[in-house]
Every structure is written in structure tokens, then in C-alpha cells.
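New to this. Comment on this protein:
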Amino acid sequence: MASPRDRLPVTVLTGYLGSGKTTLLNRILTHEHGLKVAVIVNEFGDVGIDNQLVIEADEEIFEMNNGCICCTVRGDLIRIIGNLMKRRDRFDHLVIETTGLADPAPVIQTFFVDEDLRDELKLDAVVTVVDLKHVEQHWDCEEVQEQLAFADVLLLNKIDLVDAEACLAIQQRTRALNPLARVIPTCQADAAMDQILGVEAFSLERALAIDPEFLTSDHDHEHDGAVGSVAFIEGRPMSYKKLEQWIDRLVSERGPDLFRMKGILQIDGESNRYVFQSVHMLIDSTRDRPWREDETPSTQFVIIGRDLDEADLRAGFEACVA
């Protein structure tokens, strides 16, 4: 058993779809904080995009996309961490980024109910990123409530997209739900690293106050049955203009139901890959780095939303091939 000082500190990074978790993760990986960070990325859907949006880094990065980390793949989480601990000397801190649809409670619970993890790791903080622009649309969602309630640090992100009155109103609502968390307003998740890592903010007593059966319940977790994901992989180059028109039409017709779209795009005539992301009606597409020699250019595109018609979406996507 490791002494408390020698246990590996763990940050659980959570937040609803499109809140800015990967942006924060990239800040953690590029900041000169002097720590060697290992990362576990969990995604909702069959195609992993987030791990490709994480910047090139020397840190250990592992991807889990075969299920929600809070239910079907907890065994995989324990296995991956177990393998990580065999190389304990290679890193100082572990960050686990959960899917936006994860209830953080079972993830937190893992570090206390698994004897090996309990002896070797210590939960440093649960950091929840809040999308100020869209959180009120999902306020009654069970996952959002859990993410807010269990947070030790709340990043009220995208402060540049709302006015001061709206920001204050959301801050008051989060305070009412979780009065003990540290609240940090941010733009592009630009929080100081000493407010994120090594804060020793997690309290088991507070977790038990939120849920008295925290350590004994199975935390059965069911996602909204209407929420799902559709993933596309295409080896042929895509037409940027056709994609743009198709996405614009999708967003104008179904924006409120399209929680998150993201993709790595192979555009016809371009030697660089493109990165596409959207949250509801907000769309961003940027020309990214050149394709590496060890990569086979292709397009990987994921849509997460409510009441998705996979056949219709697939037909629309395939019509965008150049």
C-alpha cells in the first residue's frame, strides 16, 4: 500500500456534451506545470474523435469508446489504470475525461470500492465544465444534475458567449445545487492549472452527503432512450462545399436536437485535415495540421443527439463525397 503522499492523484474531468472538456484537456497537456500527465479519454459512440483532437504530446493517452465509462466499461477503466500503474514512474498525475453523457458518481465510486485502486490512487478533484451558452437547455437532464452536484471545481465556460446577467443567473443556480464547489468563470476553458490540478478538493464526506448510498449502491445509470449517436467513416475525400451545405441544413432544421457533432475531415484537394465541431447551433470548422505519413487520410464524423434518423443522416453524409 502506498503512503498518502505517494498515491497517484487523479482528476475526473466531466461536463455535458460540447462544454469544453477537450479544450481544457489540451490546456493541461500544453501548460508548463512541471507534471507528467497520463490521460484516459472516454467517448460516447463507435468512432473515437476526441482522442484525435487531443494535441500531440509525450503523455500517455488511452482511449475508451466501447461504452459509457459510468456503466458498461468500469471493468475496462480498472484494467487500464492497473496497466498504467505498472509504469507509475512515468507520470505524476492521471486525468480521466468522461463522455459528456456520464454520471460521474460511479467513476468516483471506483476509486473507493476497488481495493487496489484505493490503495494506490487518491482522487484529487472532480472538475465539471459547464457550457454557459447551452446548459439551461439541459438543466433537467439527470447527467447534468449529477455532474454539477459532484463537482469540486466548476468551470463556467464560454463566458464570452453570454451576457453578465445570464452568467450570474447560472452561477446562482449552480451555487444552489452545489454551494461548496469552487466556481471559475472561463473563456476557452482558460483556468489556471493550480486551480485544476493538485487542488486536493475531493471530499468523500461531501459525496456521501449528496448520496448516502454512494459506496454501497450499484448506481444503475440509464441514458435518455431517445439520445443516441451515429458515426460515419469514409475513405474517399469529401466536398467541403457539400458538407457545409448539408450541415447548415441539418442545424437549421434540427439544431436543438443535435447536442454535439464532431469530426476529422478529409477534404478534396487539401493536404491538411480539417477539424469540425458543433454544439446545437454553434458551428466551428478549422484547417488543422497536415496528415502524417503514418496516417491514412479519411473522414470520421459523429453526431450525438435526440431521435436521430440514421438512414437519413447516412444518405446526407454520403452525398457529400467529392
Summary: The two ends are 58 Å apart (CA to CA). The CA atoms of residues 29 and 57 lie 7 Å apart.
